[in-house]
Design a protein that fits this description.
With about 450 residues, the chain is of the alpha+beta class. The chain has 13 helices and 18 strands. Helix 4 links the parallel strand 10 and strand 11.
């Protein structure tokens, strides 16, 4: 009986693979879906939840009931009292990871415990699907949890390993996510190739140059096939933030000017609150009582009182996650081609913010340039030229953004572009690696 699994713990979505008689397969995590949003909702009023949700997520003692994935996002959207946590992976390696965040009603939770609870849920789902306990796991990790800081990067992996041990895994191994995606691509390779894997998800853009081929697939030790790894901490949630800052936040005062006092030139409106409201894992910091009190005292910084009123509406009604959700939906819509009108009616009746494809291209310009430069640098690190690469393999949710894939393809004009399963390729490849590592 195999006791191992593979977990792709993503910034935006997660997936789990387990061994079966037919090979590694992904586990249905939410209904029939093989992937699940990386989201947790803590309900601070159990009576507020529907009966079905209480039965599914009720926790003993003083622990708050929780929902996960789509159910967590829906509970927040439906207005149940509580706290939504998303993009938890982004805090790894940062100062927040061991801090306690207030959930309301006297409850608090450490951020690392949010991650631990989510991993425990994934393990339970996998064990239910496989019918037996799981003691060994391969976890995916980005090339860099933290850019240009090896010590914090090592701390991030150590924190994730500790969380995996805390939920009951005895043996914990890691594999770079783009390399796992290369293993998935290798299943379709008919000859030896050099593949540049572009794994661009919610939090990071990671690249690996990997030698793949049918004769190499069975080898456990693939170190000499991995020619280069590189990555940058720019990806889907950064695109969401760009949309939010350029379209959603200006009607709330972002980029505006304060009143002219005593003949002095007007000062820009302070921008920190807008950055935090546009960043998934920082939104809840805006709702802390001292921060709210500080914001309430800042009305005099605004030449337009309507903008300040809108900002305080967002803060008092805790609309930050909903607004970033609107920005994300706009990004996805524009990624498919065309323009999108962002509905801000939750703030003020009739308020809206248009997002055009040209506007998105301008907003993403710097981020796309950094990602493309990272891809080219990865190839250079391997001692190769762009023309030496046979396949450019796209995986990760953000590769659905046409502006991004077009720019990367233009950087490798002689290379064949191949699109994998955007949300499942990494989990599948991690499963293949887990089979080779633990299945023996």
């Amino acid at each position: 009986m195999s006791s191992y699994c593979a977990i792709d713990f993503g910034t935006s979505n997660s997936a789990v693979a387990i061994p079966t008689a037919q090979g590694m397969r992904l586990v249905p995590l939410e209904g029939g879906s093989l992937t699940m949003p990386t989201a947790v909702f803590y309900c601070t009023d159990a009576d507020d939840l529907p009966d079905a949700v209480q039965r599914a997520t009720g926790a003993p003692g003083a622990e708050l009931p929780r929902t996960f994935g789509r159910a967590a996002v829906q509970a927040y959207v439906d207005g149940f009292e509580g706290r939504l946590m998303r993009s938890m992976k982004s805090i790894l390696g940062g100062p927040l990871v061991h801090q306690t965040t207030d959930l309301g009603h006297g409850f608090g939770v450490k951020y690392i415990d949010v991650i631990t609870g989510y991993l425990r849920h994934l393990r339970q789902q996998a064990e239910a699907a496989g019918g037996h306990p799981l003691r060994q796991v391969v976890l995916g990790r980005p090339v860099f949890f933290v850019d240009d800081d090896p010590e914090r990067d090592a701390q991030a992996q150590a924190s994730l390993a500790a969380a995996a041990h805390a939920v009951g895994f005895e043996d914990v191994a890691f594999q770079y996510e783009p390399i796992a995606a290369a293993f998935d691509y290798e299943q379709q390779a008919t000859r030896e190739e050099l593949a540049l894997v572009a794994d661009i998800g919610g939090g990071t853009s990671d690249f690996s140059v990997v030698r793949v081929g049918p004769q190499r697939a069975a080898r456990l030790d693939r170190r000499d096939d991995i020619l280069a790894n590189h990555g940058v901490h720019v990806a889907g949630t950064d695109f969401d933030r760009r949309v939010s800052l350029s379209c959603v936040m200006p009607p709330l005062g972002h980029g505006g000017m304060g009143p002219s006092i005593g003949g002095q030139a007007p000062r820009p409106v302070p921008s920190r609150v807008y950055f935090d409201l546009a960043t998934w894992h920082l939104i809840n910091t805006v709702y802390q009582a001292p921060r709210v009190a500080e914001l309430k005292s800042m009305g005099g910084f605004y030449a337009d009182p309507v903008q300040f009123k809108r900002l305080m509406k967002v803060v008092n009604d805790r609309l930050g996650h909903a607004l970033v959700g609107e920005a994300e939906a706009a990004k996805i819509a524009v990624a498919a081609g065309g323009d999108f009108d962002i509905n801000l009616g939750m703030i003020e009746a009739g308020l809206h913010a248009p997002l055009t494809e040209a506007h998105a291209a301008q907003a993403f310009k710097d981020d796309l340039a950094r990602i493309t430069a990272c891809a080219l640098e990865t190839v250079r690190m391997a001692g190769l030229k762009p023309s030496d690469i046979h396949a450019l393999y796209f995986t990760g949710g953000s590769t659905g953004l046409k502006l991004l894939t077009d720019q990367l393809e233009a950087a490798f004009p002689e290379t064949r572009a191949v699109r994998g399963d955007r949300l499942a390729s990494v989990a599948t490849g991690l499963g293949l690696h887990a089979g080779r590592l633990f299945g023996r």
